Amino acid sequence: MKLDIERIYKHIAFPIVLSTLLIVIARVIFIVIVPNVSEPQMNTFLFVQWFVYAFLLIIIILQLLNIFLDRVLPWKLYAASRFVIQMVLGTILSLSAINLVYSLLKQQLTSAPADLSQVILLNIYGAAFILPIFSFYFGYKFLKAWRKSELESEQLLKENARSQLMSLRNHLDPHFLFNNLNILSSLMDKDIDLSKTYLNKFAEVYRVILKTEYSDLTTVEEELELIESYVYLISIRFKDCVFFNFEIDSKLKKMALPPLTVQMLIENAIKHNVATIEKPVTISIQSEGETLIVKNNLQRKKYLPRERKASGLNNIVKRYEFFTDKKIEIVETNDAFIVNLPLIEIEYAV
Is the pTM of the predicted complex or chain greater than 0.70? Predict the structure, then answer.
């Protein structure tokens, strides 16, 4: 209700003040000049007053009608009905305002009674003048309301997508933190110096992760810098049980992908496969065209619950869907698991 009062004040305060001022000025002028003017001049004077008062009254009425219908029939919910109702009511109220001002001026400023033929002509010309203006005005209001509704819907979709993306990203940090703290805890019982080194490297990796917290995409170069530190953490824990091979075309390093994508694939490969000196896990990361290929040999742990196996991949797939129509290709053979990541080209400001 407070908002409506503020809107009413904002839209009709000026017309009311102006109308009052003009009425006072007109009365003063009328008292001063009436004895000294001819009839044609008087008619002109009365016509000007009628036009100004009718115009200001119409503005006030239409603003009040618009505020009322905004509450009862908002444009984005009842666009067609609102257009018709506001057109009809606006025309009726405007013609009523024209007739009201005409009658008041006739009674207050002249001794002649209202003329029926004048009233009929007044309404005919008034309707002929008002309807085209209303058609343009309400057409403009309709398009403006439709455009605003479209923008709001688009903004809502973006915010919803952003919320979903943030939810997916937030799944990464606790998972990564939990795994590495477990590793650190086990190392502290075996080798304090090694655990300190691990902690320093872990802090470095986590610092990079925190930098990407509000990044939708990261470059291949930045992702590989993170992977370099992450591989060091893995080598401390697994030593000769996990091996890596990198073959990345330097031309692709400015292309992009969702943050931590490669890190999650490496983590999944280690989590789901047996890694021993006799049966090491070999992870290769190489490029082919504009695709990054992450491949590992397949020797699955049998005790992992099946429902958890695809959680990391689903996360990556969903994040990719926000930025590109290109599909991630997942290939599983008897001895290898391969994920083809299409790289995303980003434009840099010049």
Answer: no
